[in-house]
Amino acid sequence: MQTVRTPGSARAIARTLRRPVGFVPTMGALHEGHRSLMRRARAENASVVASIFVNPLQFGPGEDFEKYPRAFARDLEILEEEGVDLLYAPAAERMYPPGFAARIGLGRLGSVFEGARRPGHFDGVATVVAKLLHAIEPTSLYLGQKDVQQAAVLRAMVRDLDMATNVVVAATVREPDGLALSSRNVYLSEVERRAAPSIYRALSAIAAAVASGVTDPALARAAGEGLLEAPLVWEYLAIVDPQTFEEYGTCVRPALVLAVARAGATRLLDNVPVSTAAGLDPIVTPLRPLVKRIETRSLR
After folding, report:
1. Where does residue 68 rank: exposed (0-12), middle (13-18), buried (19+ CB within 10 A)?
2. Mean pLDDT in consecutive groups of 10 residues from the start of the chain, 300 residues
3. SS3 label, residue 22
4. Distance between CA 8 and CA 151 in Å, rounded?
5. Are 239 and 206 in contact (CB under 8 A)?
6. What helix, strand, coil percent values describe the chain, rounded to 5?
7. Measured between alpha carbons, how far is 95 from 55 in angstroms, rounded to an integer?
8. Which 3 state secondary structure label does DSSP give 104?
9. 3-class DSSP state for residue 70?
């Protein structure tokens, strides 16, 4: 695996790689979720490029930029194990030299939910990923479903700016108890970690209600919002259109159950999609008694 530090060297070497090229952007502190993206990129492409860059533009005042987990030596081992051909790991001063002022904004899609709570966050994400894509010029960009609004923002950016890159969004990778993998999970105390899987259970219950035909968002949310375990608290919980991220007044499929739960200072993002299919049986079947009670309430 080659490692490069500057945009020019990244572009020069990436152009020598066999096509197609799959690209996995990361902020390091790699885990099994990142591995799954690299493996899919490897299965679908002749070459794989990854990046490691903790992007200061997407962190707001008081956020965890300085303490964000960094494990570069271990990350290199993981990249080698996954057969990555090229690592682009630029320094901040090369990405954002003195006088750098450009930003990419995505309008409403980048200003709701995470965008509302972290002003400027998605502008920073879109700006850095645009720079990475210009340097690597990949065939496909690989993203995870856990950061679903980020994936939607980047898909819109690629579309609107006519970038010649395909966006691939892979399913969320979870711990055996359901907790979505995240580099920030290392911040959780033992008590918080035990409670954290209740996020997925709650979202799954709501998704099951929608999949079974509950159309009132308040009733659907009632199927799961009370399942969140202390000391976690909801920051937001919504049922939205998976393309526009507008909240449904009446639940239809496809839908996305979207949430952030807070454990102390740590924000845990998760989501569960509800497809147009009648399926979702792995979630719906064990929850049918609960869903039936919700349906009964909706008829009163």
Report:
1. middle
2. 97 98 97 97 98 96 91 97 98 95 95 96 98 98 97 97 97 96 95 98 96 96 97 98 96 96 95 74 45 45
3. strand
4. 26
5. yes
6. 45, 20, 40
7. 9
8. coil
9. coil
Bridge partners for 274 per DSSP: 255
How many other C-beta atoms lie within 10 A of the C-beta of residue 230?
9
Which amino acid does the sequence have at 153?
Answer: V
The angle subtended at Cα 57 by Cα 170 and Cα 145, nearest 5°, is 10
- Residues near 149 by Cβ (< 8 Å), separated by ≥ 6? 109, 113, 114, 115, 122, 245, 258
Residue type, 85: D
Residues in CB range of 248: below 8 A, 6 or more apart = 217, 239, 240, 241, 255
Query: Looking at the whole model, is its pTM more than 0.70?
Result: yes
Q: Which residues are catalytic?
A: 34
